[in-house]
Specification:
Elements lengths: L5 H8 L4 H4 L2 H13 L4 H9 L3 H16 L2 E5 L1 E3 L29 H8 L8 E4 L9 H14 L4 E4 L2 H11 L3 H11 L14 H7 L6 H13 L4 E7 L5 H18 L2 E8 L15 H14 L5 E2 L3 H4 L1 H7 L6 E4 L6 H4 L10 H10 L3 E5 L6 E6 L5 E6 L1
Parallel strand pairs: 1-8, 1-9, 2-3, 3-4, 5-6, 6-7
Antiparallel strand pairs: 9-10, 10-11
Bound molecules: iron/sulfur cluster (SF4).
Length: 393
């Protein structure tokens, strides 16, 4: 007999909204989630095609509440990119530059530290990804990480996408496992999910030819999990993929998590188009974004956190997603290039108090978290707008 998890027990005890109870598909999905804890690939496809977006969102919100009640997580972080020089040219990317481009840059360890220094006492995490530098090997990255840790030992380093790690291992003439060992020893604490795009190789061939295959992406994350390096996973949608490709992507992540158990958070985000990149992209409407968040919550029963990535979605759409299955809204961020080079207009000077208000306005309770989701402070603003941590754990 299968063991019923606590979230399934709580799900069974929640009041069922009419939008769910009056809908045959959604009622059946609710029963299957309570009884089996998991939906099938076919059900995932049906949810993507279900006319009632309100119903799909309501069911996802029930599942989110069964796990996290009305809590929504954020952290105090800063994005710093190592370099925008990249030997690849993914068709959706607005960030990469050739080595001789006037705006190409590469940060030295000291320059990286200088970026962190003004905010160091206010942040818990630095998030860092970059291009595939033609010359850098593992020594350059180990140098950056150990320099950061030397100056700011309390700051969690979440860095390097799977393709960067593959590139570094090739440049260094060592295995991926050796590369991860070396980077972990130098201070790497966790790995973000970038580079997943769509985990269907025929789609990858159209939008990012030359990048790692779907299997290679998953292999890097699996090896990181083996070394107890937690990772996130992502999905870039609204390019040239089909609905079926999106569900395949979710199933591949779910299968990987069944075996390696190290994904902390799933971050789906739509392609942001300008006139120069991927003119054949179908793009995603706001309703599709909300549905993608909701279906991710419903299909990824083994990945605890679903993030509304406000650097891409914007604050308004992100706050709606908090009632459609998302339990995380990223952090203070402070500086961000990849989405903003692609056209994001999300403000970068949003103070923590505004982030707290954004969460509260969705009817949720703001919880400041650490990078590994194992230390929390429940947060309130007092009447003067000051931040008050009221419960820590
Ligand atoms: S997405 Fe990453 S790998 Fe692809 S071109 Fe941009 S920086 Fe390079």
């Amino acid at each position: 007999m299968s063991v019923i998890a606590r979230w399934q027990q709580r799900l069974a005890s929640l009041e069922v909204p009419l939008a769910v109870s009056s809908n045959t598909l959604l009622s059946s999905c609710l029963t299957n989630l309570i009884d089996k804890g998991r939906l099938s690939e076919e059900e995932g496809m049906e949810l993507m095609n279900e006319p009632s977006l309100i119903g799909v969102s309501s069911l996802a919100d029930m599942v989110k509440r069964s796990r996290f009640e009305d809590k929504v997580f954020y952290n105090r972080n800063l994005h710093v990119n190592t370099t925008n020089i990249c030997v690849l040219a993914c068709r959706f990317c607005a960030f990469r530059k050739g080595p001789r481009h006037k705006d190409a840059y590469e940060l030295s360890p000291d320059q990286f530290v200088d970026r962190i220094a003004p905010l160091a006492s206010d942040i818990d995490e630095v998030h860092s990804v970059g291009g595939l530098h033609p010359d850098w090997d593992v020594d350059e990255y180990a140098d950056i990480f150990s320099t950061i840790k030397g100056k700011f030992p309390w700051i969690h380093i979440k860095a390097l996408t799977a393709i960067e790690i593959i590139h570094i291992s090739k440049r260094s003439g060592i295995t991926i496992l050796q590369t991860l060992h070396r980077l972990k020893d130098a201070g790497l604490d966790s790995i973000p999910g970038g580079g997943a795009e769509i985990l269907v190789d025929s789609v990858r061939d159209k939008i990012c030819r030359g990048k790692e295959s779907s299997d290679e992406y998953l292999e890097v994350h699996s090896l990181a999990h083996r070394l107890d390096i937690p990772t996130n996973c992502t999905m870039l949608f609204g390019t040239v993929e089909s609905i079926s490709d999106r569900i395949t992507h979710l199933i591949r992540l779910r299968d990987q998590q069944d075996s390696s158990r190290g994904f902390q958070c799933f971050v789906p985000y739509p392609f942001l188009q300008d006139h120069s990149r991927l003119p054949d992209a179908q793009l995603a409407t706001s309703s599709e974004v909300i549905r993608m968040i909701a279906v991710s919550r419903l299909m990824l029963d083994n990945i605890p956190h679903i993030k509304a990535y406000r650097m891409n979605l914007g604050d308004h759409l992100s706050s709606i997603c908090l009632n459609a299955g998302a339990d995380d809204i990223d952090g203070t961020v402070g500086h961000e290039e990849i989405m903003h080079d692609a056209g994001s207009t999300t403000r970068l000077d949003t103070p923590e108090s505004a982030l707290i208000r954004l969460i509260t306005s969705s009817g949720s309770k703001p919880i400041r978290r650490n990078s590994t989701y194992d230390q929390y402070s429940e947060i309130e603003l007092n009447d003067s707008g000051f931040i008050l941590p009221i419960v820590s754990g």
